[in-house]
Amino acid sequence: MKILVVVLLLAVTACTATQQGEPKREAWLTGKLTFRKVESVAPTSKPSSGYPAPQNEAGDPAVKTARATRQSPDATVREQALGTLDCGAPDPLTGNDDAAAPLVTCDAGEFKYDLGPVFLDSDRVGKAKASPSEYGTGHVVTVEFDPEGARTWSDFTTANVGNQVAILVNGRVLSAPSIQSPITGGAMQIAGKFTADEADQLARQLVGR
């Protein structure tokens, strides 16, 4: 079984208030995990300060304006949006992107992306488990897709060897690894500088708990 290992570098983010004795919950981790094909990548001169939590309602005019350019079906419009997008500015599309449309967005580092529509999301995750990293640093989340998700993942990775796939939460790219070979086992591993609480929160979020 081949497992795609996704290295996810976490930035400092705000967290929500918690009751004493409960693990803290990061607000940005409350969104749905989605997968999109990477169409193009560009460097950014103003890197993001981290992974933001949603700040805008879906009906805000700013969301509608951002969708008209950054989620346009016209590749030329999205190319222009990619060139002018400021990754350091507040993003009205955080948590408000249209899954059926393309998306121009950022990661928490130095890149911005033009992505295809969502082809797979956490609704197709059957199991998710947090555990200490075998490399001794941080924690990882191992994800197993349900049968439909496994078929979709296998078909996509088979058809896109050599291309990148973007993994996002709330419309912000967590990682965009290159697909080295078809991944037919229906599993992947998200690894990075997770605390135990962050990994546990992500695993629970992926299976709706």
3D structure, described in words:
It is built from four helices and eleven strands, in the order ββββααββββαβββα. The chain has helices at residues 61-70, 75-84, 147-159, 196-206, and strands spanning 3-8, 15-16, 25-26, 33-43, 103-106, 111-121, 125-132, 139-145, 165-169, 172-175, 187-194. The strands form three sheets. It has a five-stranded antiparallel sheet with strand order 5-6-4-9-10. The two termini are 27 Å apart. The chain is globular, with a radius of gyration of 17 Å. 39% of the residues are buried. Mean pLDDT is 85; it is low at 5-19. A hairpin with a 4-residue loop joins strand 5 (103-106) and strand 6 (111-121). It is α+β, with helices and mostly antiparallel strands and 209 residues long. It has one domain (33-207): 2-Layer Sandwich (Gyrase A, domain 2). Keywords: Signal. Residues 40-77 are annotated as: Disordered. This is Preprotein translocase subunit SecD. Residues 118-206 form the SecDF P1 head subdomain domain. It comes from Lentzea flaviverrucosa.
